[in-house]
Amino acid sequence: MPIRIPDELPAANILKQENIFIMPASRAEHQDIRPLRVLILNLMPKKIETETQLLRLLSNSALQIDVELLRIDDRPSKNTPKEHLDAFYRSFEEIKDNCYDGFIITGAPLGQIAFEEVHYWERMQTIMDWSKSHVVSTIFLCWAAHAALSHFYGLQRHLREEKLSGVYEHQVREAAKDHPLLRGFDEFFYAPHSRYAEVRVKAIDEHPELEVLVDSEKAGLYLLGSKDGRQFFVTGHPEYDANTIDDEYRRDLDAGIDPQVPENYYADNDPNQPYKVRWRSHGNLLFTNWLNYHVYQLTPFNLNEASLVALSQAHAESL
């Protein structure tokens, strides 16, 4: 089944060239089914690139998905044309009365800035609180994962001495091997990271409402969730394209930052050699499992705020 996106979204042509089944909104309107409604809050500077990455992952489900794009505020973007934002993105005021089956909040290049100093932090907190009563299940990626863990659970973020950048081996925890989100995962797999901060595994293990699903000896915490399945936190970037880490590395070099060479990414760890891409299968499986088991299996057919409150109460009583 396809994902449903606006007819003129730039990602549409890219995904068509990759033989990914998308359905223009004009065609989907004539189908008598209820697609899943998925909202994406895109905080990344290069919004077209990020939305294409996420739409590619969402397209692997057998479910029809109606995707909407959300912007945090109306400030101009240095990396995305105003015409694109005006045409395809909505403001929070426009969607705050809606309910959604799934919600994805992307990372942001804010890893070295205190949350309280981020100019949209108050709005970010409002949207995160709103998601608890208007969304069935939410995925927080990288910076958004740290922001949500701090906001909802009071978990401290620690700055690293050096940026964590590269592709690292991860292990599924023994206690999480039967978790629906990890169905079909290999016990060991690779995933990209690109961040300056971390939330420590020990703090999660000591928190009764959360469970660590996947971690890494070198990269630390990677994937965890709330025990009711309505929030998942991914500290890495399973959505990254093959060249994304290279682009970031070259950007930092040009900025005079003198970054470390990303680990386990280039052949022989040589930036002049091709990159080794070995995270796509797990990234696709992660999002497919999330849609199938934590969105589609939980969401009510009549999606409204009252039904989501009832869903939350049912989860609370079952714990």
UniProtKB/TrEMBL annotation:
GO CC annotation terms, alphabetical: cytoplasm
Top-level lineage group: Bacteria
GO molecular function: homoserine O-acetyltransferase activity; homoserine O-succinyltransferase activity
Coiled-coil segments: none
Pathway: Amino-acid biosynthesis; L-methionine biosynthesis via de novo pathway; O-succinyl-L-homoserine from L-homoserine: step 1/1
Class of the enzyme per the UniProt entry, highest EC level: transferase
Main location: cytoplasm
Alphabetical list of Pfam families matching this protein: HTS
CDD domains registered for this protein in UniProt: GATase1_HTS
UniProt-listed GO biological process terms: L-methionine biosynthetic process from homoserine via O-succinyl-L-homoserine and cystathionine
Residues annotated for substrate binding in this entry: 163, 194, 251
Site (Important for substrate specificity) residue list: 194
Annotated positions for site Important for acyl-CoA specificity: 111
The EC number(s) this enzyme carries: 2.3.1.46
Active site, renumbered: 142 (acyl-thioester intermediate), 237 (proton acceptor), 239
Protein purpose: Transfers a succinyl group from succinyl-CoA to L-homoserine, forming succinyl-L-homoserine.
Family: Belongs to the MetA family.
PANTHER family according to UniProt: HOMOSERINE O-SUCCINYLTRANSFERASE
Protein's name in the database: Homoserine O-succinyltransferase
